[in-house]
Amino acid sequence: MKSFSFWTLSVLFFLPFLLKSQQCSQQEVDYLAENASLVQELSQDCAFDCAFAADQNQCLIDCLSQQLALSEDCLQCNSNQIQCVLGNCALACLFPNSEACQNCIESNCLPPYFTCIGDEDQDGYTEAGGDCNTQDAAVYPGAPDEEGDGTDQNCDGGDGMVGMEEWTASLPFTLARQGEWYCVQWKEPKGTVMLYRADGRLLLRTEGTKGEECTRIPQGEILFWKYCNGQKQKRGKVLE
Q: What's the rounded Cα separation, in Å, for the pair 74 and 85?
């Protein structure tokens, strides 16, 4: 999980605008985390500079954009965060590092902010960045994945370290390595199987009528499979 300690901004910050969620790309979320100190310092400066501006929102976006390499949509999320604190927590944040200030920000401003950037569970990953459940902070790419608990915590398409025999026991095919080759062997001519890499590149697509089809794959390559038969679909990770 990525660190987002900078979100509890010690700044004087209006009622946030109601925007659609996922305004920031995964790259922008990473950028915000990696430049936490800059974001916090700039947010403080822009808050004071724009507190009494006629168009406070545009003032904040213009101010933030001078130093932050973010899209206008993502800048809007940060502008909203500042306006939220200004509108809801100004009195509590007369002493910015106080517990009352931090509690006010966390209660009033953080939930809409994380919804805006697309990281509602605050684990550092967006849906576009591979998070398969943005409502659960324990689920994100690379998370520890407990075997057999029914949840795909690390978003790799399967639960924990369950082996392929268990995954495919009720399906009309088996998967097997033959040297440098990986083969789909059909038991029944039903449906379609696809093998693809972790980056989404399709390596093999084979129909049940083929009997057996193979593709050359180096040892150690992380593979995923997907089986389709009409409305029925299953997917998993190839574990060797």
A: 18
Distance, CA of 233 to CA of 240 (rounded, Å): 22
pTM (global) more than 0.85: no
In a domain, 34, yes or no: yes
- 175 forms beta bridges with 184
pLDDT at 34 > cutoff 80: yes
Same domain assignment for residues 168 and 231: yes
The mean pLDDT value of the chain amounts to 78
Joined tokens for residue 155: 């978003």
- Residue 99 burial (10 A CB sphere; 0-12, 13-18, 19+): exposed
Rounded to whole angstroms, how far apart are CA atoms 50 and 109?
18
pLDDT, tens digit, 9 for 90 and up, residues 131-144: 888 888 888 777 77
Q: What does the block give as tokens for 82?
A: 């500042």
Q: Which residues are registered as beta bridge partners of 184?
A: 175, 213
Please tell me the distance from the alpha carbon of residue 120 to that of residue 127, in angstroms, as a whole number: 10
Helix and strand totals (H; E) in the chain:
7, 7
> What's the number of domains the chain is made of?
2
Same domain, 13 and 113: yes
